Amino acid sequence: MTAARADGRPMYEHVAERLRGAILSHTLAPGSWIDEQRLCAEYGISRTPLREALKVLATEGLITMRPRRGAYVTEMSARDVTDVYHLLSLLESDAAADVARVASDAQLAELAGLHAQLEQAVDDRERFFALNEAFHMRILEIAGNRWRSQVVVDLRKVMKLNRHHSLFREGRLADSLAEHRALMQALQARDAAQAEALTREHFRNGLSAATVRPGVA
Fold first, then answer.
1. Rounded distance, CA 144 to CA 52, Å?
2. I want to staple 28 with a disulfide (CB 3.0 to 4.6 A). Which of 1, 22, 58, 112 is the partner?
3. Domains of the chain, with CATH numbers?
4. 178: burial class by Cβ within 10 Å (0-12, 13-18, 19+)?
């Protein structure tokens, strides 16, 4: 029987949540080996919930299991980054087009409010990151395809493993904000084709900023 916490959730879910946080914050760096013995001691748990948690994270793409070598935090190659951005571009541009067609006035006003907060957070990188993701995810929620949303959630988790996040590049944060501004205008004009095209351009630019170039750390 799987051990559970007081809230009724299985122990491994709590362990997975804690490990996921450590991975996405890069406390556990991409490429690092998961020291199961150390983590069990640190978390005060047995190997069973830890290994179940590792299976969950492997399914999400955050952990890579290597035969006879154990578990490692997934490390993104340049090809991985390109592939993830390609899929996000397809899925999120499709969602933006749907929002331009079907969103209510109240939903568009909500997106405009999120964008206004984004404008104000330009000097606070961590807050900008959080609001940026909230803006993108709200577009997906309004578009209303839960399967598309789930795929994007998983892809965005994996994207955070990239050591060279696009918004870290000099000038990219301001450019991203300008791209969001144009997208917001297309959504408010209910121009589905323009919303789709601008979202694709947004991801093309993000990929260009996130891709490691020779001699660039």
1. 31
2. 22
3. 11-73 (1.10.10.10), 78-210 (1.20.120.530)
4. exposed
SS (H, E, C) the chain: CCCECCCCCEHHHHHHHHHHHHHHCCCCCCCCECCHHHHHHHHCCCHHHHHHHHHHHHHHCCEEEECCCEEEECCCCHHHHHHHHHHHHHHHHHHHHHHHHHCCHHHHHHHHHHHHHHHHCCCCHHHHHHHHHHHHHHHHHHHCCHHHHHHHHHHHHHHCCCCCCHHHCCCHHHHHHHHHHHHHHHHHCCCHHHHHHHHHHHHHHHHHHHCCCCCCC
**C-alpha distance from residue 132 to each of 12, 30, 142, 160, 177 (Å):** 30, 23, 16, 13, 9
pLDDT of 26 > 60? The answer is: yes
Cα distance between residue 74 and residue 97, in whole Å: 32
Tokens 């450590």 -> residue: 22
Average pLDDT, the chain: 89
Angle 125-143/78-102 helices, nearest 10 degrees?
Answer: 60
Gap between the Cα atoms of 130 and 44, Å rounded: 31
Strands 70-73 and 63-66: antiparallel
